């Protein structure tokens, strides 16, 4: 029997994972439910985006060979208390809550579930884009306030369509590719900037340099991972290259974008609208200029939050365990990835 600790939470619940493990007959399963998302994650020891449950985890680890988790903190301290541990499966795009160097030094394999939220994040991106183009949150609020804004039918006030628009995607990984497919169904022209993208995956999109993409894009949507190469890649200079009245969407990582410059561009009208699910500081500070900027659509980092994402994460974790038990060759999460802007994001939720 292989002893498995399922350290779930209120999103990828222990019950979901246990159900996904039903295919196995040789497991001794122990479960624990952490406090996320009712209690926000944060830095725990030397790892990021984790629930502060080190002591509880240490108490549960004796005899455990495999852990499946989303937010449990595998710090040096926790790993030192787990001499029998052989495999950690993190049900996220990347194992940011694991001290990978310490795990590697102990011969512990670390795997994750990349792509688990690609469909959800792509659909949320399109929802944000449409909400911004058609000013849906603002007009919804006006109806609730008792207004009936027929003046918004004026030519200089109406929204615009995706059909026939040119949309630029910065980053062309699993989410960017899905967004491109949806955009083409709307009859939009899709431009892509990603020096590391597979040309065979473009499927009708046009690969261009960043300057050209910015100058042509009526809508700009960010889908890059956050690296030293991409941090702050869109600032005031880049926003000024967009056509006047462009729309900006970011559901990738807040660090890609200068949000003060975005707020200024919204205030001046250079940007017609913007929609964000991620921010450079989360939660969004009370004094953020985005809170008062016109035509800003904001959601609290929920792009990947669907029932299907949670179920997919549990199933992919079970697949990872099956591969490990059978000796299948799967690259561990701590193998260095290429420096591309859409290679797996260690911070992806």
From TrEMBL:
Transmembrane domains' residue ranges: none
Keyword Metal-binding: no
InterPro entries xref list: D-2-hydroxyacid_DH (IPR050857), D-isomer_2_OHA_DH_cat_dom (IPR006139), D-isomer_DH_CS (IPR029753), D-isomer_DH_NAD-bd (IPR006140), NAD(P)-bd_dom_sf (IPR036291)
Domain of life: Bacteria
Domain D-isomer specific 2-hydroxyacid dehydrogenase catalytic per the UniProt entry, residue ranges: 51-330
Annotated D-isomer specific 2-hydroxyacid dehydrogenase NAD-binding domain residues: 126-303
Keyword tags: NAD, Oxidoreductase
An MF annotation (GO) of this entry: NAD binding
PANTHER family per the UniProt record, alphabetical: D-ISOMER SPECIFIC 2-HYDROXYACID DEHYDROGENASE FAMILY PROTEIN (AFU_ORTHOLOGUE AFUA_6G10090)
Similarity field: Belongs to the D-isomer specific 2-hydroxyacid dehydrogenase family.
Protein's recorded name: D-3-phosphoglycerate dehydrogenase
